[in-house]
Amino acid sequence: MRTAFLGAYGYGNLGDELCLMEAMRAFPSTDAHAFSVAPEWTMRCAPGLSGCFRDGGEMLALRPARVVFGGGMFGTPDAFRAWLPHLATAEAAGAEINFHNLGVSWLAKDLRWLDETARGVFLRAASFTVRDVLSVEYAAMAGIGRLPRITGFPEADIPADPALADALLPRGRKLLGVSIIPMPLMRAALDHEAARVRGLLAEFADHAVLPVVSTVHLDTPEEDDVAGCRAFLQKFLPKAQVVAPILLDRDFWRAEMTPARLKGLIARCDTLLTHRKHNAIHGIGAGVRVIGLHPLIDNSLRRTFVTLAHRLAPGSRCVGLETPA
Q1: Polysaccharide pyruvyl transferase domain spans which residues (predicted)?
Q2: pTM (predicted TM-score)
């Protein structure tokens, strides 16, 4: 079966390609193609792809028997507006439509995309699933007309590839993984709650630090985990030993990192301190203690911890930071 997978692929966020890997497992295909703005990178990250397409026209030219829309935070007005007309055309040509493992944003602010054609695609779809309870609520409030089932972040179970960890990491050292997104809101929260963050880190004085970089976004500077990790270490852990500093080299990262290799690195940590949702998912899936650190007013990471609460290792918790008034 030829399947077309739609998601935010190729932009430099390994969490999205992780979701693609899970979708490919959930929908086995003899001929799998994915949307991507960087086909070579996506195909290296997600083994088993036959090829990639760059827009709706190229997808329809493939004449897929099945289309899988989802993975990551792709349940947004912009994504629905861009792709639902193509899904309707594919369906009319005989393709099976699936909405899979979606992260759904607040849709009610913009429902211009939800016309009768779009609603019909949802109602007739072979499956409609989302990753957490809040995504169900957002879908219901939008008036789509069909409630989705909850998957609960199945990408947590993608197997790790230990090759890079074996090559780069020392044995016998306690490792604290650190992953921070340098978004302005997080910078403000870290400045405002600096004393609290230093108190949290006191427990890890005897740990070496592993830079955990899962995103170096092609278009969005505030989605650059290299910059976020560097700034955090300089501010809060200036004297810590950093293992595998080459992971902060963007060229090395882009050439060598994959979702499975990233999980292999995280699996070697004693504790992961993360602002990035899919790094938390990797850690939880690997049985690592995970401490989420995020601005309190942003619910993205908290949604993850709530959904996967039954799988948290002892000592794991989600820490919300206040921001200036």
Answers
A1: 65-293
A2: 0.96
